[in-house]
Every structure is written in structure tokens, then in C-alpha cells.
Amino acid sequence: MESGTFSRSSFRTPANFMLWALVASFAMVAGSAGPGAADPATPARVQSSQFTQHPTPKPASAAQASSNEDLAAERELLDLANKDRREAGVPPLRADESLTAAARAHAQLMVEKAQLEHQFAGEPSLLQRIAQVSALRLDRAGENIAHDSCAADAEQSFMHSAPHRRNLLDPRFNVAGFAAIRSNGRLYVVQDFGHEVATHTTAQTRDLVSLAVKDVRTEGGLTALSQYAPAKLDDAVCALAQAGRPNARLLHAAYDNRRIITYTQSRPEILPPAAVNLLRQSDVRQFAVGSCYARNAAYPTGMYWVAILLY
Q1: pLDDT in tens, 217-239
Q2: Which of 2, 190, 196, 217 could form a disulfide with 179 if both were Cys (CB 3.0 to 4.6 A apart)?
Q3: Cα(232)–Cα(162) distance, rounded to whole angstroms?
């Protein structure tokens, strides 16, 4: 997932702006008679909001099993999911307690309201409620919900419904938390899936981007660029995250007479195409990299923000 802007200090060319939201997919099924209605994959809403450089989710009391929680069914759901993934040639899911906490909190709401919904009135979106209880760095999330007679029947219903099956067998998901709560003869099930991205320190992120820059120059048969470290560039990138705008022009006041590239990525070493084009220009001599990992409303579970300065 990426977004970015690219700008020259002269401002004679318009900025090229792309925005890819975090992805969330949903599906629901009721009863064991067959698959029910499902929502199509839906991108997260993008808006500016409060910013947190270091994820600080609140501990979730929902992580503790309630009296009607069926822990055996939760374990069975995970085992069945990984069995189906193994048979499909897909890597297994790793159980995560924070995703389990998010799933349990939502399952409790479904029990209280006796209905299946992915988002009730006043409830945060999937990515937002995961972010409230989890420090995981995710760039993708998905959810299956159902009520059925038992874990095995719920899994069978999921596997016979295309949207649920896609979530269960999606090779991009690598972590999950499953909730199972019994109420009035029904087992309410919530399966929350996520794709956890690699965790890098600010220095490690700079190193990854720097290596990518050097690779672009080498592949283009160009002279290697020397690297420099301007003051407070990381702080300036974090300010972009706080504003919720990966906008290169916002850096020109502090770093004038530079060609500036800014972008957001779950894998910061992947440079946007427009950045590669700038890096292949023969008159470029030096570069600098600033980075910040941040959460905001556009990226509730966080994203790497990167700036590359060229001259």
C-alpha cells in the first residue's frame, strides 16, 4: 500500500499524488443451511485525524474470556482454518491475542444485539477497533462473522461461501484472532484476519530506502549518489504524518532548493515509479532519507512515511 507526492523546488511541474487506503474485507453467514449475504471488499475511509508516532493501544478487557465464551470452539476454529489453508497450499495463520480481543469485543456486541453486523451504529470500523487494542503493524485486515450450531458447521459454511473462503484462504493474511460465544443455542463466531508487516526502526527504514536508492542508480548504470543527513528530517516527516498529508511541498520551507519525494508504504523499500524516474536523472548528485512510522485515521494500524531529498 502506498501513497506519495513528488515535487521540484521550482514548483513548475504539478505534484503527482496517489493514495491507496488500507484494505478491509468483510463477509457474514447465518446458520448452517448455507452461505448468506456478503459485503464486497471495502477500502478504509481516509481522513485526517489525531496522530500517534508510537502505537499505544489500550489494553482490552475483551481479551479475557467471558462466561459464555467457548474457548474450545475458538481453538477448533483456528485449527480448522489452518487445516483448510494447509490443504490449499497456503501458509498457516498465527494466533494473536490482540486480534482475539478485537474479535471477542465485536462478538459480544453481536450477542447483545442478537444480530450479525460488521459495524454497529457508533462502533469503530474494523481497522480502527483492531488499532484500539493491538500494536500490530497491519496493512490489510478481513473479517468473517456467523452464527451456527458449532465450530465445525461454521467453518463448513464459511468454506462454501466465496467471500468467506477468500478471507480464510487469503495467502496475504498471516495473523488472526477468533472469537466464539454461545447464546440462546447459537454459536456466534467472529474471525479477524490481518497481514502483519515487518517492524523496522527509523534507522532501519532509512537503511532500506537508501539501499533501494542505490539499486536504482546501479541498475540504471549511473554514478552512485553520496548520502547526507540534514537536521530534523525524521521530525519533519512525522509532521507530515501528523497532518495526514504525504505532501512533498510541505517540506520545501525547511529544505529549499531540493527535489523532494514523499510517500507512504507498508514496505518502505518499494519506491514509487515517479521516485525511480527522478533518481535516474543524470544531474542528481546527493540524497537524504527521512522516515517515520505513524498511525492516523487514514492508517489506523500504522504506515511508514518516507521522504527522499535529492540535489
Answers
A1: 999 999 999 999 998 999 999 99
A2: 190
A3: 49
